[in-house]
Amino acid sequence: MRTWSFSSAGTLFFGRHAVRHHLQDACERVRAKRAFIVTDSILVKAGILAQTLEPLTAAGVTFEVYDKVTPEPGVELVRECVAVARTSNPDVVIGLGGGSNMDTAKLVAMILAHGGDPLDYPGDCRVPGPVKPLICIPTTAGTGSEVSPAAVFTDTANHIKVSCLSPFLRPNFAIVDPLFTVTCPPKVTADSGIDALTHAIEGFCAVDNEEFPLPSGEKSVYQGKNPMADAMAQRAIMLVGKFLRRAVKDGNDLEARDGMALAGTLGGLAFSNAGVALVHAMEYPVGGAVHVSHGAGNGLLLPFVMRFNLNHRVPETAQIGVHLGKIEGNGMIELAESAIREIERLREDIGIPTRLRDLGVTEEMLPGFAAKAFAIKRLMRVNPRMPQNEGEILDIYKAAW
Q1: Are residues 253 and 173 in the same domain?
Q2: What is the CATH number of the domain that holds 362?
Q3: Do residues 207 and 292 lie in contact, with contact meaning Cβ atoms separated by under 8 Å?
Q4: Which of 33, 39, 231, 269 is the most exposed place for a label (fewest CB within 10 A)?
Q5: Number of domains the chain is built from
Q6: Which of 181, 200, 217 is where one domain is finished?
Q7: Domain that residue 284 falls in
Q8: What's the pLDDT tens digit per position in 34-83?
Q9: Can you give the pTM of this predicted structure?
Q10: CA-closest candidate to residue 240, choices 289, 281, 295, 290
Q11: Where are the beta strands (DSSP E) in 40-103?
Q12: Would you say residue 144 lies in a domain?
């Protein structure tokens, strides 16, 4: 049996009012006196930032706020945020918001510690050591960035999203308060929720840990399927099946918000150990070329990739349907196909786009997308069915177009 490991954020606090009760403690445990908060203007207007500042003030922590993060941030924004942070000289960096805000905070913490430019670090295990103390507080339910070792931003010159992967990018503290997601609008709730499902499914259907194709001398944060990641992924899938439609329909449904907040975190724990794969590799060039959220892009591509992988993950795909609660069929293949159809129904019910052409993608873009996706080997090797060439990926894009 091949050895596997399981990692998370240093400490996870979860529950209603978790920020009020635990942010002061987190700051004290890293001996912070000056905080740099990375967030966005929407959360300022919604009063979420004010709720976050209260325990900081009570702890005697001074702070500076950068509230200009935009969805799917480009490298220029990250550089600007780093420049502001340098003048603040913080003891701790706090990422408050969705995945874009938390990922930007991770990049700031990394560059404050090690210098350089954001584009120096994309890839696996290229961060040379610990980063500035980092606290992540999600206000969406889905990205899992609060517990993950990944930070994603857009390389605007090359029109592709890139990811820095390092165990040093896991936050010291993740504080998940489902009440912070109540103001999240339906579209963002849907996009982040389908992202949580994608994370859980890619982690659950990843290549087996014992077969993970890591070349000699290379390091990888991802390591393929293992029992702990499987347990997290399956629970996340069940929660999404039960609560995502409800959370999109009624943002004040607190039971649904609790369930989806947990689904997002569990999905993050699953994928950040097992890995994400072909769905993410294919979404990166799409998201870098057209204006679509990472979650919506993943949700669009997910059923098409699942069909590509199906013969290599029939039992797992059937089990996904069982966890979602709505499948029918006689035999494993029929159950697995029914599971994919249920994901398509869920996608349509919550308003996720179903065709690349609806995002403004032209057919002429697809070969370039396929070349870029095929080049992301660190994700390709996690997929249970390794694409053999760009043409196989192009066929999936064409089916989704």
Answers
A1: no
A2: 1.20.1090.10
A3: no
A4: 33
A5: 2
A6: 181
A7: 186-400
A8: 999 999 999 999 999 999 999 999 999 999 999 999 999 999 999 999 99
A9: 0.96
A10: 295
A11: 62-66, 92-97
A12: yes
